[in-house]
Amino acid sequence: MSAITLPVDDEVGVAAFSETSALLSTYKRAPMELVGGEGVELIDSDGKRYLDFASGIAVNALGYGDPGIARAISESLGTGLIHASNLYRTAPGEQLASKLVERSFASKVFFCNSGAEANEGAFKFARRWARKIGTDAKVEIIALRGSFHGRLFASLAATDRPSYRAPFRPLAGAVSICERDIGDLDTALDEETVAAVIVEPIQGEGGVRVLDADFLGRLRALTEKREIALIFDEIQCGLGRTGYFFAYENVGIVPDMLTLAKPLAGGLPMGAVLVSEEIASTIQAGDHGTTFGGGPLLAAVAGYVVDRLSDPSLLKAVRENGTWLGGELDVIARRSGKVRAIRGTGYIWGLDVVEPANEIVKRGWDEGLLALTAGEHTLRILPPLIMGQDDLRRGVNILEKIISQ
Ligand SMILES: Cc1ncc(COP(=O)(O)O)c(C=O)c1O
Predict the structure, then answer these.
(1) Which residue among 4, 13, 123, 125 is least crowded, i.e. fewest CB within 10 A of its CB?
(2) Rounded to the nearest whole angstrom, what is the distance from the C-alpha of residue 348 to the centroid of ligand 1?
């Protein structure tokens, strides 16, 4: 039994934190202690099982106990080379980069260790390129209202969450937030001063807001005309979650850079920046770096994960089940009268709920369901991409119960 016995409080998706823990209290954790996982379920220290509608915040796309991940790890360990540093060539990283290049618009890939790092890297690459094609004034990074791009100083400056930002000012300079409005962007995107715009095709933390193809298309046209780099942050919505390997494939709009992380290495920490040929050609040795990025163990696992997540039958199932799931959530909304709006696609959905979403998440724990919030009144669900319709149905039934209570 966990030592955590304090009552839950009203934070987003969380409960009171054990005062006995030595972990710095940057998170307030749920009271149960997770000790294992199997398929699409997690198991706590009392042996209770939870159906997973959270995927470790969009990470565990292949669920728990995937034999291919175990095989990739053990084969990699068999080489004795967990890490080599980026001073030497290793095959898994080069192969993984080639796979991502083959499947995308990009000509080169930079590997790092997290989503925030991937975005910080993309900002640097954008500035490097922009200074080359423009003057030293072409440095601004613009992000959108409702965005979440990470919690380091530049990625935080590009994150539209006042409570995350205020205590840590000054944030990185020349990074600002613009409304999700093409007229406002038209004004903000000054060719002389702006290096890049960063956009989540589906804003995850900001309430699961799907940016439509028309908006993204106009933004693409503006950025192309003014020689401003368009960065898609697909850290949460990419790698199969929309039912397309990249979210941009669904809308048919191609960025200049794209950032990935969360599910990339099956739960091991890895991020990536996919870079167009034009921008890549301006990057030189020494411009950026990281000790662990793209190491052989991580890259071997990610190579397997990328193969699995680009499997057409898995992607088709996510699209079809996702359409079905959206319909079921609609039914819950109508029957319960407690849902104001539903947004999403594939296996990423947000429900605007009347009561604080956190209360519903907590009731889910009692009923054996893990779900998430995305803001105070948005319930967010991100099932593992391997979840079939029977388990989705099971989760939907629990959702209906905890929303209607
Ligand atoms: C869209 C998006 N970008 C960036 C990040 C930051 O990723 P990380 O927590 O790995 O730094 C997240 C994390 O939730 C995210 O959802």
Answers:
(1) 4
(2) 15
